[in-house]
Write the structure tokens for this entry.
Amino acid sequence: MPKREHSHMKKKKKKKALFAPLSQRQTETLKNWEAALWLAPKLTAIIEDCALSLVYDRLASGEYVAYKDGNRTKITVESIKRRRANLPRAEYTPLSRQSRQLEATA
């Protein structure tokens, strides 16, 4: 009779990486990305902490300026910095005393 697998005995699946491992050149570029003139979409996604599809959506909407060099897409670092500078500032208001007391009891 085969052994029955219990839920607590299931093997944990490893999380998939979002991207293939970076080359040494890509790693070096990320360390000093602000000094570069352009970045590949993959590196832009890593720097902007977003999905690669979102980088392409932003390219399509004109948030980034990019150039094609053969098959390669090159996003200008200047356009990445400009987009970041134009983001609205986050504003937070402190919780009232009553709200904090309610959160503490929850």
